[in-house]
Amino acid sequence: MKDEKGTLERILQAAEEEFLENGFKDASLRKIVKAAGVTTGAFYRYYSTKEALFEALVKPHADAVMGFFDEGLSGIRDLPAEEQTGAMSRVTGDCIGKILDYVYDHYNGFKLLICSAGGTVYENFIHEMVEKEVDATYRYIEAVESTGHPMPEIDRELCHMISSGLFSGMFEMVVHDMERSAAEKRIRQLREFHTGGWMRIMGVSFD
């Protein structure tokens, strides 16, 4: 059992390095096997494909971050309509804080997800977050309107552009290997910019 665990750890470490350097599409399974010091036959006892190996490295991180995001969305959705606006900044801040902490505690695994997933089922991870954010925005608009507060007409394409700018911008911290303290400051400023824009468009105050 100890030898098997050691073999698995070597495979995963070699795979992480290869995927980070070359991305999923261009990563060489032959190089991974060689770097791990195992035979091809031994490798296939653990993973059936290169895709399965990549998934083993990124799935826990994709699930964790999406879980924090879903928790944040439900934290607003499950509130009474009249309380959602006042809770927006707090809930959003808590959610993004949890995501940032997780990313920097599991940096290489998350960098694989953001920078190396082309050609896998994870290549649209940010897009999936954006689509959830767009849906949540429309639910929020309906909730506010139900309280009698008028809201301007906001088309889905604009909402998608705004949300895409937020999440693509936020994960630049990984693309550009920002120091954690710098990322925290920039994401705080990005949130302020994003929040201020929505308040102006919607005519509400999240403060």
Overall description:
With 207 residues, the protein is mostly helical. It is built from ten helices and no strands. It has helices at residues 2-26, 29-36, 40-43, 50-77, 81-105, 107-115, 125-146, 156-170, 172-175, 180-202. Helix 1 packs across helix 4. The longest helix is centred in the N-terminal third of the chain and has 28 residues, at 50-77. The model has no long low-confidence stretch (mean pLDDT 95).
Oligomeric composition of the shown chains: single chain
Largest sheet: none
Count up the helices: 10
Low-confidence stretches: none
Mean pLDDT: 95
Number of strands: 0
Structural class: mainly alpha
The percent of residues in helical segments reads over 70%
> What gross morphology would you assign?
elongated
Order of helices and strands: HHHHHHHHHH
The separation of the N and C termini measures 55 Å
CA-atom Rg in angstroms: 20 Å
Question: What proportion strand?
Answer: under 5%
Sequence-ordered SSE layout with sheet pairings:
Elements: H1 2-26, H2 29-36, H3 40-43, H4 50-77, H5 81-105, H6 107-115, H7 125-146, H8 156-170, H9 172-175, H10 180-202
Helix pairs in contact: 1-2, 1-4, 1-6, 4-5, 4-6, 4-7, 5-6, 5-7, 5-10, 7-8, 8-10
List the main descriptive attributes of the protein structure presented here:
single chain; elongated; 207 residues; mainly alpha
Quick structural summary:
By secondary structure, the protein is mainly alpha-helical.
